[in-house]
UniProtKB/TrEMBL annotation:
Similarity section: Belongs to the SOS response-associated peptidase family.
PANTHER family, per the entry: ABASIC SITE PROCESSING PROTEIN HMCES (PTHR13604:SF0), DC12-RELATED (PTHR13604)
Region described as Disordered: spans on this chain: 234-284
SUPFAM superfamilies named in the record: BB1717-like
Lineage start: Eukaryota, Fungi, Fungi incertae sedis, Mucoromycota, Mucoromycotina
Protein's organism: Rhizopus microsporus ATCC 52813
Molecular function via GO: lyase activity; peptidase activity; single-stranded DNA binding
Alphabetized UniProt keyword annotations: Covalent protein-DNA linkage, DNA damage, DNA-binding, Hydrolase, Lyase, Protease
Protein name stated in the entry: DUF159-domain-containing protein
Keyword Disulfide bond attributed: no
A single BP term in Gene Ontology: protein-DNA covalent cross-linking repair
Coiled-coil stretches noted in the UniProt entry, renumbered to this chain: none
Basic and acidic residues compositional bias, start-end: 242-252
Length: 284
């Protein structure tokens, strides 16, 4: 399953990254009033997709939560994921989209929750190790029942061996050539397309992140920071403390602005120290 992901890039940055990673983008139809870069993209958000429109590869905002064109009443729960196994069937919920309404969802990474032995779940952030954008295979359709007529779902498949320790499912992540094939409307739904729905073969980087990502109200850079970097180094964590220190210890909230101020202050002290030393040497 893929229920949360990250895309904290504005439309211009997305186009720049696509070109840098050698993806073709010939037209931009991103509604800047509806689209908002986010560290915590959730269902029903407007998300950026790459699809084929009039033989052009175009960026377009779509609502995450699929509504098929043939439906007459807006469903309460809109599917955000389309399972590979379901799509391989000849009929089904997504039949109107498989031939000509395939898209790619643009992301920087995604979150997944690992079930722990004590019954709790630990969120992880997953991204490509090579730093490239994640291009999720998706399906879209057009239905006038929704405020935003374009809606979409992310295709999922069985987890790779590397990822299976976190979850049993993962989004279908496409490379450049696969993206071109997937969104090509002239290629019908066939084995050529079906074979693309497989586990990602490249290297992924994953690490534990704060459980604050569980609330859609939270949207800040700290969501994608490894837990260890927020708690301090492991040496600090294991450092023995005397009873008085432990008693008087206060836990301060994580403040990115305060951290940046301290970092700038330290840098300024180093620069001042450097020039003072140089002046002393000159006088001597």
């Amino acid at each position: 399953m893929c229920g949360r992901f990250v895309c904290f890039l504005n439309p211009e940055q997305i186009v720049e990254r696509l070109h840098r990673d050698n993806y073709c983008c010939e037209d931009v139809q991103v509604d800047c009033q509806d689209f908002r870069p986010s560290y915590n993209v959730a269902p029903k958000h407007q998300i950026v997709t790459l699809y084929e429109n009039n033989n052009q590869k175009s960026l377009k905002t779509m609502e995450w939560g699929y509504v098929p064109s043939w439906i007459k009443k807006l469903p309460i729960n809109r599917p955000i994921n389309a399972r590979q196994e379901t799509l391989e069937q000849t009929k089904g919920f997504y039949v109107s989209s498989k031939d000509t309404h395939r898209c790619v969802v643009v992301a920087e990474g995604f979150y997944e929750w690992k079930k722990l032995g004590n019954g709790t779940k630990q969120p992880y952030y997953i991204k490509r190790k090579d730093g490239q954008l994640m291009m999720f295979a998706g399906l879209y359709d057009i239905n006038e029942l929704t405020d935003k007529s374009y809606t979409c779902a992310i295709v999922t498949t069985e987890a790779s061996k590397e990822f299976s320790s976190i979850h049993t499912r993962m989004p279908v992540i496409l490379n450049q050539d696969q993206v071109n094939t997937w969104i090509d409307g002239s290629i019908p739904w066939s084995s050529r397309v079906i074979d693309l729905m497989k586990s990602f073969e490249g290297e992924l980087e994953s690490y534990q992140v704060t459980d604050k990502v569980g609330s859609v109200k939270n949207d800040f850079p700290g969501l994608v920071k490894p837990i260890d970097s927020q708690r301090g180094s492991i040496s600090q964590f294991l450092k023995p403390q005397c009873p008085d220190e432990e008693k008087n210890k206060e836990i301060a909230p994580f403040d990115m602005d305060d951290t940046n101020k301290k970092r700038k202050s330290n840098q300024q002290e180093k620069i001042t120290h450097f020039f003072n030393n140089n002046n002393k040497r000159k006088r001597n």
